[in-house]
Write a structure and sequence with these properties.
This protein is mainly beta. It has no helices and 9 strands. The N and C termini lie close together (about 10 Å).
Length: about 110
């Protein structure tokens, strides 16, 4: 984390290849965050992927109260940006192959401002 004038941010990326079922590829602890920006990139040359972004309103570790905020197909070479300013305790990104057996590669970048 980098601290500037009493403020801080965290940024990083996750990369991988989709499977036929949804897999959680990024889980962010967003308690106390001012805002979060997530960029989902389909880095594959020809296959699409499907992604979901789940948010948890409270109780980071307990229950299964994730709310599906976005479930979207992303064509090869495209990217999508999601920004959150509402206070959530956890944000999870899940990806899967849009067509069974046609796996795609992805990169997910995020920036969290505290």
């Amino acid at each position: 984390m980098v601290i500037t004038r009493g403020r801080g941010y965290t940024e990083d990326a996750a990369v991988g290849t989709t499977t036929n079922d949804y897999v959680s590829v990024l889980a962010l602890d967003t308690r106390g965050c001012e805002n979060v920006k997530i960029v989902v990139k389909n880095t594959h040359g020809s296959n699409s992927l499907t992604y979901k972004i789940l948010v948890k309103h409270a109780d980071y570790a307990g229950g299964t109260d994730d709310e599906d905020v976005a479930a979207t197909e992303l064509a090869a070479g495209n990217e999508a940006v999601a920004s959150y300013v509402q206070g959530y305790s956890k944000i999870t990104v899940q990806v899967k192959s849009t067509s069974s057996g046609s796996h795609a590669t992805y990169e997910i970048e995020y920036l969290i401002k505290y």
